[in-house]
Amino acid sequence: MSDPILGGCYCGKIRFEANPPVLYQAYCHCDNCRKAIGAQVVAWITVESSKFKYTQGTPKTYHTETTADRTFCPDCGSSLTYVHPDRSTHVDIVTGSLDHPECYPPNRDVFPEEKLPWISLCNQGRA
């Protein structure tokens, strides 16, 4: 069995683990993700929700207008996960919240039609 994927928030009060396989490693360019995270593009990894669990602390959940649930640390505000009811068997984990984000480079783009004009797509070089 592969080692679990570990991560958590900036202040350390929330910790989680996910077990492989990683189903997707992607950049999301949608306006909702950009605003929720506060970045020009958001990197995510996706795992089966049955293979994800919080091991320390309890995140706060924000139920969005798109019916998705975004979790974040109630103390430091770090974004952690995204779950949409249309894909409730999957959880998207913010790559920046991983202990080793360098192990999961994005290899695809989601909502590329919404990307900011000065961002390059994965297949066009460095994003």
TrEMBL record:
SUPFAM superfamilies: Mss4-like
Domain CENP-V/GFA: residue ranges: 5-119
GO molecular function annotation: carbon-sulfur lyase activity; metal ion binding
One Pfam family it belongs to: GFA
UniProt key word Zinc: yes
Record keywords: Lyase, Metal-binding, Zinc
Protein family according to the UniProt entry: Belongs to the Gfa family.
Name used for this protein in its record: GFA family protein
Organism encoding this protein: Pelagicoccus mobilis
Highest classification ranks of the organism: Bacteria, Pseudomonadati, Verrucomicrobiota, Opitutia, Puniceicoccales
